[in-house]
Amino acid sequence: MKVLVVGGGGREHALAWKLGPSPLVSEVLV
């Protein structure tokens, strides 16, 4: 699954950082 995180603040960065290692997520776009 590809995930798009919209925004550049701390919350968005933390969300992308936590989703990265997930085996369900193939790509994280910030």
From TrEMBL:
This is Phosphoribosylglycinamide synthetase N-terminal domain-containing protein. GO terms for molecular function: phosphoribosylamine-glycine ligase activity. GO terms for biological process: purine nucleobase biosynthetic process. Residues 1-30 form the Phosphoribosylglycinamide synthetase N-terminal domain. It comes from marine metagenome. InterPro entries: PreATP-grasp_dom_sf, PRibGlycinamide_synth_N. It holds the Pfam family GARS_N. SUPFAM superfamilies: PreATP-grasp domain (SSF52440).
